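Design review, sub-item: ligand-bound model
Attendees: FS, YL, KQ
YL presented the inputs for the PMT complex:
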Amino acid sequence: MALPSGLEITKEVLDAEIKAFFDLAPPLKNSDDVSQKLEAFVKTNSLLSGTGGARRVVCVTSGGTTVPLEQRCVRYIDNFSSGHRGAASTEYFLKAGYAVIFLHRRGTCQPYCRSLPDDPLLECLEIVDESNIQVHQFHSQAVRSAITKTHAAVAEGLLLKLPFTTIFEYLQMLQMVAFTIKSIGPHAVFYLAAAVSDFYVPWKSMAEHKIQSGSGPLDMRLVQVPKMLLVLRKDWAPMAFCISFKLETDSKILLEKADMALRKYKMHMVVANELSSRKEEVVVVTSNEKILVRQNKSLGVDDVESALIELLVERHAVYVENSDHLTGQQ
Ligand code: PMT
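KQ shared the predicted structure:
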């Protein structure tokens, strides 16, 4: 429902929009498989051997969602996101002892693969003779590290990779993750770094077949994707620690918009980033602070995620401690 700008929609209207979105979305093809994997992953990490406590679990969303223009999709709207932020953050969360659900756009940057070349298959491998292929000496360290660390994290039950492509898949999977990790209360974190489409074509009004170009200019109406952040926070997983991102290209409005998102969606933290400087610095906005986080080149760290995740882990620990006090679970 379109409202004049400046008017807030009520929770009832938002709930109705969200219900309509899910009711009309094409059902997730592999929902049973996703659901089983999630259940098993959360169960494994719910009980730490001997301690009776739960491991901290973070859902990192990463990469951009697509908006199909045809049901038998030939064309779609996409965005710039490479998934680098999500992949790097996943590595640091794992290093900090978290279990990570990596909800990522298919084909985007993967954890531990950041230092591999763009086309790893063709650039890392070389043919020795008829029956032997080997890793090129130059890339051997990066390949070894990517394979060993990824396999170890998956084998230890600490990394679950769930791929999505469309906005429909992403939001259905995000909801499934939330419903599953709700059971671990404040030990759950959402780190919403995915670049989520703001506008889409509802499935029912979408052309079934390839749109024909013979009939002149294309006139198409996109409707707004309902923002699910508030329901995620309030209804889907109310005890989870929620961090969302705010991306702008105009740095003059960035912090104001991040502040607004913090209050409107009741996030615990919003990470504000500007498109061109996003790899060098971000500002973490909380209810009473604005913390500038930069890559620390003098310490040999060439990404911003190292310091960012350190800060978030620290704040999450305080949140868990306070929640445990409140619920008497010390
Ligand atoms: O992937 P990289 O190339 O490394 O880039 C990282 C990044 C710039 C994509 C990342 O740091 C980032 O800013 N991600 C959020 C981008 C975005 O969608 O910003 P937004 O202002 O449109 O949305 C704000 C928040 O609302 C986001 O947390 C988003 O997940 C969420 N959202 C957005 C739209 C929508 N319809 N529903 C949502 O829940």
